[in-house]
Amino acid sequence: MVALPNIYETASLPSSGSKSLIENGQYKAVIVASEWKDIRTAGGKMLVISVILTEGRFANTEFTERLNIINANEQAVKAAYQTLARISEAVGFTSTPADSEALHNKPFMVDITTKQGDVMLDTEGKAKYEGTVPKRYSDYSEIKKYSPLITGGTNPFSVAAAPAPTTPSFGWSS
To answer: In what order do the strands lie in the sheet with 45-53?
Structure first.
């Protein structure tokens, strides 16, 4: 069993099927967790980040970012680091941190877009149909942009750079 650090009320979450759909707009959010997960590519790993909306009608709705930080596909790695850099900038860092935990619990804004699911294709690239209606994947909401939380013209959470790892001090000098 794993003790969870927070409790989120689920009764007010909007849903369509098994996924939450959010109105297009800008929302305040925080990262509440991050972890490494293996991917199918040999030796590949992704950083999985849990982003929670913190205010308004859709408060406590969770989004998951999957960033292919270690991957044989250079394009995937580049895209992952660009997203990580955008998140880092949104919380006030000038570079990505050495530890993803430095991003936790720092408020920022996200732009959410809800899209209609794409048409399902068969192995020949033709649309699949249910009767006369094309089959579609589920509609979905996604984070399109990360930006700083601006209050009174400045970002109160701004820092010069990601915190450097600390070295324990033992009270003596050399």
So the answer is: 62-70, 45-53, 25-38, 108-115, 140-148
